[in-house]
Amino acid sequence: MAKAKDHCPTDVTSDILERLPVKTLTRFKCVSKPWLKLISDPFLVRSHRVRSQKGNPLQLFSTASSYDKKKGEERLHLSFFMGDEGPLLQECEFTVDGTGRLLSSYLGSVLCYVGFTSILAYNPSTRERVTLPSVTHCLDDCNEGKVGFAYLPDENEYKVVRLFYKRWVHHPADFFGDYEIGCEILTLRDGADSSSGHWRVVPDEYCPYPVCYLYPPCVNAAVHWLVHYEYREEHYEELDDEMIVSFDVEAEMFKMVPVPRICLGFGPYSMTLVALRGFLVLVSRCNDSEIEMWVLKDYDSRCWFKEYRIDLSGMDRFNMDFEYAIPKDIRDGNILMETYTHGPNRLDCYNVETKSFRKLIDLDSGRPGKLNSGCRRFHFYLYWESLFSLPSRACSRRCRELESKLPSTILSGGLIRVQDASDQALAKGHLLPGTGKATASLRGERPSSYKSDAWPLPAEL
User: Global pTM?
Assistant: First the structure.
């Protein structure tokens, strides 16, 4: 009688692996060459990414420690959680240039940090980080608002878009005077070496108007900026209702997007653009205590629909030097929003049905980890894990680091010991193909404490 195989078929193993978190898979790469080859296979990488994007995103909070004026640096800390009440999954911290801001993208796993003089790309899942090449035009600093960050799921690549002044001659009678705003792009592809990525100036294409540098959202493969407040005031008749500048990263063309005409009567400083679950949303502050949320449901026909009018006076901190509220996500009839005062910000939840607020997170009573450790403010993002690889040398360095930290991971019987608590919950008892008998069950599901935290838009969207 032929001897039965003592390992799982490759297709079964691949199906199990694509259900595991990236942190576990990164460690498994260091087990053996067959495992490295299997986990690096483009088919498994794609399957893992698609499964992650269809599932529930993680909640990411970024905080920054005190700015070091002498070094011109600050420490950026990232904390990842599984749902509103879910456990802390991982934390990471690194030094960044200046006091910039993280940019994220819908369905994306790579973050973009824009500092004073440099731009970083960072995948928290794999811990790979790379400093992007210097910009080609530096008449001004990088400025996080001048940089847009787009993710193209079909191509699985990221586009970093930067606006810059090619010419700006100030006139006493006109603040903006004579200007010419160019655009340059850098593309990040999976597994490509950083030396292959470079800034490329878009030829014969110029941004039509000066824009607000307020973290432009990316929707429908286009980065969106509001026309600058002061320019709107000075050139109101010229602009009419076309107050949004969009840049299509695939066609590499600038276009204008009109806003609802009713929002024009609320003043040039009343509008903010955000992206919610793949939709472009215009937040308009219609008076001192209320905001309206307009959703661009049909992007091609430029049709806006007013979904919500929210009374902010129901918030317990409304009169405490309240500044503004920015919607960050929506789920089950609840809108998650960052609220800002002159002090620390916090995360609030607005129930659409009861029209009431409840506090979720602040810096005084934050979640575990370093979310409340002497930080000035935090920012909230949704995050989807993936094995997207930045520079190949960074991946090799990361594997060597992991290998040195796991000197005795292979045990008799083909089991792998995972010492991290979150990995134990997800990867306890996994087999290494071809190294032993099937003496343990294979588990790829989430921990029992996990609960759904998807925030879909209402059905009518």
Answer: 0.79
